[in-house]
Amino acid sequence: MVELHDLPAVELRNLLRTGEVSAVEAAAHFLARIEQRNPLLGAFITVTTGQALEQAKAADARRSRTAGGDLPLLHGMPIAFKDLTDVAGVVTTHGSAALDHKPAPADAPLVALFKDAGVISLGKTQVPEFGLTAYSENRIAPPSRNPHAPSRSPGGSSGGSAAAVAAGLLPFAPGTDGGGSVRIPAAACGLVGLKPGRGLVAAGESAGDPARLVVPGPLARNAEDAALMMDAMAPGGHYLGALRREPPRLRIGITLDSPWSGTFPFTPDQEALDALRAGENLLEHAGHTLGDAAIRYDNRYPDAFTTAWTAGVGAARISPAREASLAPLTRTFRRRAQQRSPAKLAESLAFLRRFQHDTLAQYGEWDLMLMPALAQTPRPVGWFTGTAHGSEPWPSAQWPGDADGDYRKQCEYAPWSSMVNVCGLPAITIPVHWTGGSSGSGLPMGIQLVGPMGSEAVLLQVAHQLGF
């Protein structure tokens, strides 16, 4: 008998709508999975069992009243939100020991959007402090771990959500992506991760994001499940229906060029190149035309991006007495952000607008751009910070303070992510390769496809066409 957590999200949604599975049954099942597996994986910071079961009972009562005729799109579907996103009555920690952890007074726009779609929230998932890093470790809770290899990180900043989906603690989950925070953990955990284009999903958080980098997107086990979530996040897009059609034959440009190469020279791991070759073979077999694309990036990009990326943490309301509780990377980049003049930020934002224009012109010679999702295999827990800690939060006094080394490692790990946010483009990561040779064996590695504005449906169609 197939367990509920083994079902694709689309199939579970259909069972909930027909009443073959009740919302209470689904919530209780996934809550039991969380209780069983979260102590190892650290995917959740907070589990809201009581609230979830009450919501599920209300969903079942609604279905009884309507006889299943007028149900929201995601009726009864269990999900969870990153612990950067406010859920009414639930503590938002932002992954930080420097903040008071108080229940949120109201739902964030993203949460309100999903509640209107009928979901049942099971809790809050693990994040790095303020969502700043490509790994999901902080000083307030155990690190999030990769279900395929618990000694490895699931990536970040949506790492807890990705670990939960990959381990069957959730059928799918929304993440937010400001520099790769959906696509990095999706790639590390063997999931499909879609970053929509800027402005498509109106529920993104805008505070502290002067470059408009952050957009919500789905983390899912396949393209159909991601499309279902997109139908809730961007109503009217008909993404799930679009998968009934094949994508057009596309001209796809292959590139290893990165705007980080001048500042942080890197060599992709062989596993990353193997994933790229696997993706090329699948795309060619599907009838697409591939060719090499040489992309020229301005070497001033790293400084400008870092200035924009850290502006929010510089402006965050943190008591001076609590700043010592910040992780070294957060504390270092907060101090630097506060020391920058408003003119410097304005100059960086103006540069990034020019960078966007120049990059779009080069990408525009192709229908899609193809590159590895990550330059390295999923990294060990503690690798970025030099802590290599165990199951407990790392004590503040012992957390090494090499913020610049940490940042460099992140940029070398995920050198093809942030420029997509700067350009505002849609992008998808697809798990086309496993280091052990077959799905579930070894570590997942993926490709990233970047499309023009409005190409979310095409990206999902291609992922579906390739068998994901």
TrEMBL record:
PROSITE patterns: AMIDASES (PS00571). InterPro entries: Amidase, Amidase_CS, Amidase_dom, AS_sf. Residues 27-460 form the Amidase domain. GO terms for molecular function: catalytic activity. Residues 147-160 have a biased composition (Low complexity). Pfam families: Amidase. Residues 138-160 are annotated as: Disordered. Belongs to the amidase family. This is Amidase.
